[in-house]
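User: I've been trying to design a sequence by hand for this structure and keep getting stuck. Would you show me what you'd pick, starting by listing the structure so we're on the same page?

Assistant: Good idea, let's start from the same input. This is the structure you sent:
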């Protein structure tokens, strides 16, 4: 048999070398990676982690804004953001359920029924993003802040590719409510495309940093589709919620203001209105509102004016300024109410000023001149005081200076004092400008026995993550421009403008309460110089306090250019505001009208630190009705505080430790229930306003913070109406 001769195959050999070399190179590469754990200078474990590690944002809740009793004014609430997934890669191969939009036409048609966009826009928007290779698309403002009801309805339709991302929405439960003070927020994207709530106006903007908080995050491992891998560790960095801002506002009094302003606005359609209510003993602002106003939830009603008129705008106050002129005269012992002067007109150098009726009322007393709001009487008073001394008092009352309230953009106003005529017109509030808040601050000196209090609206700011109080504002005295005796005499004179037959404040009388105050009718500067004239082209106002003997409430009301009917006076819309707000607020505060309650009042003592038994005994001895929270042996706190004057039978709440037994709330005012809720920490849910008519759990029930208690209240008018109906039914049945 013939042997086969070996033939060297060069081509095969070269192929062997090539493939063998590649194999050795690949094998060496694998061995190198396994030994070093690196490829191309990068750690493979880090690359894998970057590919499969995921990070989820934990959004911080924006801080809440609440009133003095903890009632909600603004908070974050849950909403949803609509996302349409366009990429087919979102649906895993073999999946029975599509995770991307399949039918663009149908999806656009249905979405147009639920979000404020046209079908054609939605369709074009999705097609544009799809054709450019985008993975998903959103729909701007129209696709944000979706309610739970909208999302639930869309989910029922099971449209492929629609995702609903949980989001935050700012919630303002009270609608038009102190809107220029509270402000509003908008949702804005940052550089990293994260959407945040940003304050754009009012407290929301001023305290945006404190309210915003800090977002947290969750880090976890996931598969290719983004699902969390089993047994993967989660690293959680908790979100830090924004601070809570508690205001001095009282939600109930603020609602009285808003309701009254709506009624007057509907009836008189003024260009502007302003109402501020203050506690003159502390300077706490209990209510603040203006018109035009807006709903912060949707900005409906917001105009080009973004200014808080109480502090960022000035006015010529008109005759309300006269109360400070007369205060200066009394303090300087230049006031003689029974002295006479010739009313009508007064000339100083080349300037003549006139009374409102131009011819005056003949020769009258200074007291009558003040009651009739005579400008000329102020001129003669200025002669007695001296214009430089008068300016010292004006500055002493805080005019021409900022009050120092914790709100931005406060303006100081301008006191004209360059020549004698300017100093003269300032005595009756013309020419010089002030802010409404300055007027209120100055008036606290008259209401508070000579001690002037700085107005403030922030009660405290609390970090909810640690319960630390980061800002705690207290009453601040701003000096004593007049004595207590002068303040008392000024209040008596101011009260006479309401009670006198020729007083300009007769419309401001409130049944059962003595009102002290001063009306104002100021000219309005025109856009092209000079003043507007004729008709109701005036700024009508009233600066008043109640009760006159010891004021608990102080209010400044402004109505500019109301649409008056023939025969109507400018003080009519102002009095409708003032009277409604003050009467409702006084009754809400349990300040009893004269003639209704004749019981003597007693100063409440301090019972904190005393034993429960001793405190109850002492209160009963003084004629009070003690209600104890808890069954502890020692009293930790009380409401009302020490020093308040209370009538016999008034409920006094004492707080101790231990289990809580519910009292009988029947007949309690809303304020008392809120105080009990605050001291007890119980979950008390209040329905209605006025006084308690029923409660969900009976008196004596032992409960804890986790047990909700529903308390029903009714206005006195409604309770009385029901009693009348019951009596009528009885008579019909018995008849």
């Amino acid at each position: 048999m013939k042997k086969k001769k070996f033939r060297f195959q060069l081509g095969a050999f070269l192929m062997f070398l090539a493939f063998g070399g590649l194999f050795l190179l690949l094998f060496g590469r694998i061995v190198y990676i396994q030994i070093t754990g690196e490829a191309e200078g990068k750690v493979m474990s880090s690359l894998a982690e970057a590919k499969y590690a995921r990070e989820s944002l934990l959004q911080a809740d924006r801080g809440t804004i609440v009133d003095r009793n903890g009632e909600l004014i603004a908070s974050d609430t849950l909403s949803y953001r609509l996302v349409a997934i366009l990429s087919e890669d979102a649906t895993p191969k073999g999946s029975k359920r599509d995770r991307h939009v399949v039918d663009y036409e149908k999806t656009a048609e249905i979405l147009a029924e639920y979000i404020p966009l046209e079908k054609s826009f939605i369709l074009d928007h999705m097609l544009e993003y799809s054709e450019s290779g985008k993975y998903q698309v959103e729909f701007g403002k129209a696709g944000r802040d979706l309610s739970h009801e909208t999302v639930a309805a869309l989910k029922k339709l099971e449209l492929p590719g629609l995702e609903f991302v949980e989001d935050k929405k700012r919630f303002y439960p009270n609608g038009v409510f102190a809107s220029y003070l509270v402000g509003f927020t908008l949702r804005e994207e940052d550089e990293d495309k994260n959407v945040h709530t940003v304050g754009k106006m009012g407290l929301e903007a001023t305290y945006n940093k404190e309210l915003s908080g800090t977002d947290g995050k969750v880090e976890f491992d996931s598969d290719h589709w983004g699902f969390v891998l089993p047994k993967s560790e989660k690293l959680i960095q908790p979100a830090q919620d924004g601070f809570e801002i508690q205001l001095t506002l009282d939600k109930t009094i603020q609602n009285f203001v808003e309701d009254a302003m709506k009624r007057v606005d509907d009836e008189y359609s003024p260009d502007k209105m302003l109402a501020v209510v203050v506690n003159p003993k502390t300077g706490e602002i209990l209510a603040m509102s203006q018109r035009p106003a807006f709903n912060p939830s949707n900005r409906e009603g917001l105009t080009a004016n973004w200014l808080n008129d109480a502090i960022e705008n000035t006015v010529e106050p008109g005759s309300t300024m006269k109360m400070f002129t007369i205060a200066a005269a009394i303090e300087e012992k230049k006031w003689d109410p029974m002295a006479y002067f010739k009313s009508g007109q007064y000339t100083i150098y080349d300037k003549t000023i006139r009374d409102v009726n131009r011819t005056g009322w003949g020769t009258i007393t200074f007291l009558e001149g003040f009651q009739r709001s005579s400008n000329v009487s102020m001129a003669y008073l200025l002669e007695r005081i001296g214009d430089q001394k008068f300016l010292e008092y004006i500055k002493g009352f805080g005019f021409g200076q900022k009050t120092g309230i914790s709100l931005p953009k406060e303006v100081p106003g301008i006191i004209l004092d360059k020549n004698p005529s300017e100093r003269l017109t300032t005595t009756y509030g013309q020419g010089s400008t002030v802010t409404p808040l300055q007027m209120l601050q100055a008036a606290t000196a008259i209401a508070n026995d000579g001690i002037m209090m700085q107005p403030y609206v922030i009660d405290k700011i609390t970090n909810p993550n640690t319960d630390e109080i980061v800002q705690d504002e207290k009453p601040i005295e701003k000096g004593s421009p007049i004595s207590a005796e002068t303040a008392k005499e000024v209040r008596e004179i101011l009260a006479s403008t309401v009670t006198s037959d020729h007083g300009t404040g007769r419309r401001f009388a409130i049944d059962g309460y003595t009102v002290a105050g001063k009306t104002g009718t100021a000219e309005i500067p025109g856009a092209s110089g000079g003043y507007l004239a004729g008709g109701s082209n005036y700024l009508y106002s009233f600066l008043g306090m109640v009760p006159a003997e010891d004021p608990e409430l102080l209010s400044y009301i402004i109505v500019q250019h109301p649409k008056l009917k023939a025969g109507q006076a400018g003080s009519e819309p102002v009095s409708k505001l003032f009277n409604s707000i003050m009467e409702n607020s006084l009754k809400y505060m349990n300040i009893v009208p004269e003639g209704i309650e004749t019981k003597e009042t007693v100063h409440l003592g301090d019972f904190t630190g005393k034993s429960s038994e001793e405190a109850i005994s002492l209160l009963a001895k003084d004629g009070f009705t003690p209600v104890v929270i808890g069954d502890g042996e020692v009293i930790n706190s009380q409401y009302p505080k020490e020093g308040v004057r209370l009538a016999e039978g008034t409920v006094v709440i004492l707080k101790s430790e231990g289990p809580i037994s519910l009292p009988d709330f029947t007949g309690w005012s809303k304020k008392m229930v809120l105080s009990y809720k605050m001291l007890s920490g119980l979950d008390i849910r209040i329905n209605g306003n006025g006084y308690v008519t029923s409660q969900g759990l009976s008196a004596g029930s032992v409960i804890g913070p986790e047990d909700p208690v529903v308390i029903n209240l009714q206005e006195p008018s409604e309770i009385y109406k029901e009693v009348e109906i019951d009596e009528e039914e009885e008579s019909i049945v018995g008849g």
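That's my pick for every position. To get oriented when you compare it with your attempt: The longest strand covers residues 72-85. Confidence is low (pLDDT under 50) at residues 42-53, 719-735.
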